[in-house]
C-alpha cells in the first residue's frame, strides 16, 4: 500500500510533503500497529496434496473471491518432485531434489533428519528472511519424520514463532500433536486439526502485527491429505507402514457435495492400460472401487472447506489491521493428486500432470487482479520470488528464478521465460485408498522427467530406472494415454513436423542436462548444450544442423539400476562428466 506524506500529515504524524516516513512513525489501529516501513508482509498458505486438475479450487468460494479474483493464477506451476517432503525442501531452499539430496519422506533418504544432516537447517528461507529484517512464523506441517522424539534434535531454525505438527500424528485429523516454539509437544485427542490450525494462525497473525518488523507467516494445513496412522516413520517403506483412509472434514462440512464425483476425463479408469512399468500393469477398477474413490474425493473437497475459511479469516484480519493492501498472500500445495486416472488408486508420486501441475495464486501489491497466466513456474522458483518481493538479495546457487508478479513482468515472461520443468523421483508409489488388490506400495518408481511447454508444443518426456521411456503430446493427448515411444508406434510417425526420433533425441539431451544441473544451468539448460546462445527453445534445437550432435554424439540418459534414493553411481552418465557441448561454423564442428 502506498501512502502519501499528505495522508500521514492529516493523521497528525507531523510530516510535510518533503519528509520521508521512518520506521519510528507508526499508526495505531484497532487490534495492532500498522507497519509503515513500506516493506510488504507475506502470508504463505501451503496445502497438502491439493489437486489442480480434479477441480478442487472450484469448491473453494473464498479462495475464488479473495485470491483468484483479486490476484493472479499461475496455471502452469509445477512441483519438481511429486512427494511432500522433498518437494517442500526444494520450495524452502530454491534447489532441486538432486541438489538437496532429500528425496523421500523417511530416513535414510528423506524426512527431517535428512534435512538436518545435509546442513539445510542452517541454510533455508526463514533464516534468509530473518537476515533481511523479517519476523517469521510457521504453523502446521513442516516435514515428514519431524517427530515427537526428534523435534528438539535439533529444533528447527529460523522462526520467530512456530507451532509444528509432529509425526506420527501429523495426518490424524482428530488426534494431532503440535509443538510450539521450544515447548514440549501437546496432544489434541478429539480436536480437529484444522480448527487448531486456524486458532494458531490467527494468534501468530496477532503477534506479528504488534511488532514493528514486517512478517512472513506460513500456514501449512494437512488437508486435503488422507487420514493416516503410521506404524513406523523410518526404514524401508512397505505395504504395512500405515493405515490410510479418506480425510476427515470438520463436522459442519461433512454433509456437503453429496453428488460430487471425480471428473470423468478420458484418462479416468480407462478401458485400455496406459503408462509404463508398474502403472501399465494396473487392473481396471471395479464399480465398488470407483464408488469408494468418489467418496474419497468428496471428503477431500469437504476437508478443504476448513482451509477455505482460514483464507477468509486471514484476509478479514489483515483488513482489520489495515495491512491487507501491503501484504502478499501466496497459496499453493506441495504436490498434486490423482484419483482413478490411469487406473491409479488415490495418491501422488507419478509424473502425470495430475501429480505435478499444482495450484499457485498470488495476491498483493501490484499483482494483476483476476488474471491467469501460462508462464512456466516451479517450486524451486518460490524462495527467490519471496526474497525478491521483500527486496532481499538473491543467492547465486538458486536452481530456480524469480516468478514475475507485476503485469509488465508477466507480459515479458510470456515471451522470454524458459519453457521447461525438470521432474524427478526416487523409490516408491503408494495407493492411499482401500487395499483392493493386496498391493499398496509399488517399488522401482524411479524416473527422470521433463515438461516442455511452448507456443506450439506441450510435451512430457520421461526415462525410468527400468529403461522404459515415455513421450506424450499433451496438445493432442491431454490425458497422457498414448505413449509415442511405445512399441506400437509407427516408424514413420512425426511430432511437431519432424520425425519422432529427432524430437525425442532433443528432449533426452535437455533432460540429460537437467537431471544433474546446478544453479543457472537449471534455469538455462540449453546454454549448457549450446554455449554460443543460439538455442533457447526446443524449436531452435530442432534445426537439422544439430541432428548428429543429438542423435549420434550426445550421451543418452540411462540408469545402472533402480534405487530408492539419490545414489550417484546408479544415475548413469552425468552431463558435467559425460556430456557434450555443441560448437559449429561453416568450416568445422567440434564437440567437447
TrEMBL record:
Residues 40-391 form the Sulfatase N-terminal domain. The keyword Transmembrane helix does not apply. The conversion to 3-oxoalanine (also known as C-formylglycine, FGly), of a serine or cysteine residue in prokaryotes and of a cysteine residue in eukaryotes, is critical for catalytic activity. It comes from Cucurbitaria berberidis CBS 394.84. GO terms for biological process: phenol-containing compound metabolic process. Its EC number is 3.1.6.1. The modification 3-oxoalanine (Cys) is found at residue 84. GO terms for molecular function: arylsulfatase activity; glycosaminoglycan binding; N-acetylglucosamine-6-sulfatase activity. This is Arylsulfatase. The keyword Signal applies. It holds the Pfam family Sulfatase. Keywords: Glycoprotein, Hydrolase, Signal. Belongs to the sulfatase family. InterPro entries: Alkaline_phosphatase_core_sf (IPR017850), Arylsulfatase (IPR012083), Sulfatase_CS (IPR024607), Sulfatase_N (IPR000917). It catalyses: an aryl sulfate + H2O = a phenol + sulfate + H(+).
Amino acid at each position: 500500500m502506498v501512502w502519501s506524506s499528505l495522508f500521514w500529515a492529516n493523521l497528525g504524524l507531523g510530516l510535510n510533503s518533503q519528509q520521508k516516513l521512518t520506521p519510528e512513525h507508526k499508526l495505531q489501529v484497532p487490534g495492532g500497529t500498522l507497519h509503515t516501513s513500506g516493506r510488504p508482509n507475506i502470508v504463505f498458505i501451503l496445502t497438502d496434496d491439493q489437486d489442480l486438475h480434479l477441480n478442487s479450487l472450484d469448491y473453494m468460494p473464498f479462495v475464488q473471491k479473495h485470491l483468484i479474483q483479486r490476484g493472479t493464477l499461475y496455471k502452469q506451476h509445477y512441483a519438481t518432485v511429486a512427494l511432500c517432503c522433498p518437494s517442500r525442501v526444494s520450495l524452502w531452499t530454491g534447489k532441486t531434489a538432486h541438489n538437496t539430496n532429500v528425496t523421500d519422506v523417511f530416513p535414510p533418504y528423506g524426512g527431517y533428519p535428512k534435512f538436518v544432516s545435509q546442513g539445510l537447517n542452517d541454510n533455508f528461507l526463514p533464516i534468509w528472511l530473518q537476515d533481511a529484517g523479517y519476523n517469521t512464523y510457521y504453523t502446521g506441517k513442516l516435514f515428514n519424520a519431524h517427530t515427537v522424539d526428534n523435534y528438539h534434535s535439533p529444533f528447527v531454525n529460523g522462526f520467530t514463532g512456530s507451532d509444528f505438527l509432529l509425526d506420527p500424528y501429523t495426518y490424524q485429523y482428530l488426534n494431532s500433536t503440535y509443538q510450539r516454539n521450544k515447548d514440549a509437544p501437546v496432544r489434541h485427542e478429539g480436536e480437529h486439526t484444522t480448527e487448531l490450525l486456524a486458532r494458531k494462525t490467527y494468534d501468530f497473525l496477532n503477534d506479528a502485527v504488534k511488532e514493528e518488523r514486517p512478517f512472513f507467516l506460513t500456514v501449512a494445513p494437512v488437508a486435503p491429505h488422507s487420514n493416516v496412522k503410521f506404524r513406523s516413520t523410518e526404514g524401508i517403506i512397505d505395504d504395512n507402514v500405515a493405515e490410510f483412509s479418506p480425510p476427515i472434514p470438520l463436522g459442519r462440512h461433512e454433509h456437503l457435495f453429496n453428488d460430487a464425483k471425480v471428473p470423468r476425463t478420458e484418462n479416468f479408469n480407462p478401458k485400455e492400460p496406459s503408462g509404463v512399468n508398474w502403472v501399465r500393469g494396473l487392473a481396471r477398477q471395479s464399480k465398488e472401487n470407483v464408488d469408494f474413490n468418489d467418496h474419497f474425493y468428496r471428503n477431500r473437497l469437504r476437508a478443504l472447506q476448513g482451509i477455505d475459511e482460514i483464507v477468509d479469516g486471514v484476509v478479514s484480519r489483515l483488513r482489520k489491521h489495515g495491512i491487507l493492501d501491503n501484504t502478499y498472500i501466496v497459496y499453493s500445495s506441495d504436490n498434486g493428486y490423482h484419483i482413478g486416472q490411469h487406473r491409479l488408486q488415490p495418491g501422488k508420486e507419478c509424473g502425470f500432470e495430475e501429480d505435478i501441475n499444482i495450484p499457485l495464486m498470488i495476491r498483493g501489491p501490484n499483482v494483476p487482479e483476476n488474471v491467469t497466466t501460462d508462464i512456466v513456474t516451479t517450486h524451486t522458483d518460490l524462495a527467490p520470488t519471496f526474497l525478491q518481493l521483500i527486496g532481499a538479495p538473491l543467492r547465486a546457487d538458486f536452481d530456480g528464478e524469480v516468478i514475475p508478479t507485476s503485469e509488465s513482468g508477466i507480459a515479458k515472461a510470456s515471451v522470454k521465460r524458459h519453457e521447461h520443468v525438470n521432474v524427478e523421483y526416487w523409490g516408491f508409489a503408494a495407493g492411499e485408498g482401500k487395499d483392493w488388490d493386496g498391493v499398496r506400495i509399488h517399488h522401482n518408481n524411479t524416473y527422470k522427467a521433463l515438461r516442455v511447454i511452448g507456443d506450439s508444443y506441450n510435451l512430457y518426456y520421461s526415462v525410468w530406472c527400468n529403461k522404459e521411456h515415455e513421450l506424450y503430446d499433451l496438445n493432442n493427448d491431454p490425458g497422457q494415454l498414448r505413449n509415442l515411444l511405445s512399441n506400437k508406434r509407427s516408424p514413420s510417425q512425426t511430432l511437431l513436423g519432424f520425425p519422432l526420433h529427432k524430437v525425442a533425441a532433443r528432449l533426452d539431451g535437455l533432460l540429460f542436462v537437467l537431471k544433474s544441473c546446478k544453479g543457472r544451468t537449471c534455469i538455462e539448460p540449453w546454454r549448457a548444450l549450446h554455449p554460443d546462445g543460439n538455442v533457447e527453445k526446443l524449436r531452435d534445437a530442432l534445426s537439422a544442423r544439430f541432428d548428429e550432435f543429438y542423435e549420434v554424439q550426445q550421451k543418452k540418459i540411462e540408469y545402472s539400476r533402480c534405487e530408492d534414493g539419490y545414489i550417484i553411481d546408479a544415475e548413469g552418465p552425468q552431463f558435467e562428466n559425460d556430456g557434450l557441448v555443441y560448437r559449429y561454423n561453416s568450416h568445422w564442428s567440434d564437440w567437447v
